[in-house]
Design goal:
Blueprint: H1 18-43, H2 51-85
Helix pairs in contact: 1-2
Length: 97
């Protein structure tokens, strides 16, 4: 007996690599943000900051970059969960090959 009308559909999943890219490059951008903050703090005319203030500014910039990356990744995980539940469309479907 052959079953003519049955076909097995693969589940719709997210095929985009954006989340992996953000996870990989967030530490790189955080270090770059800290370095750039240090350069800006030292070279801006009229900004007379001592070493501890420059370090604090660098730490604040690094923390802001890490926080932004973390928040984006939380939203991306939420999106992937909604795609898995069928409540949202994937950015790039794995079925579209």
């Amino acid at each position: 007996m052959s079953e003519v009308g049955t076909s097995v559909e693969e589940p719709v999943t997210e095929g985009s690599w954006m989340g992996r890219g953000v996870a990989l490059f967030t530490p790189v951008f955080a270090v770059a943000a800290g370095w750039l903050a240090g350069v800006v703090a030292q070279w801006v005319p009229g900004a007379h900051l001592d070493e501890t203030q420059v370090t604090s500014f660098m730490v604040a910039a690094t923390t802001a970059a890490l926080g932004a990356g973390w928040k984006w990744l939380q939203g991306w995980q939420q999106h992937e969960r909604l795609v898995a539940e069928g409540k949202a469309a994937p950015v790039k479907s794995t079925a579209a090959k």
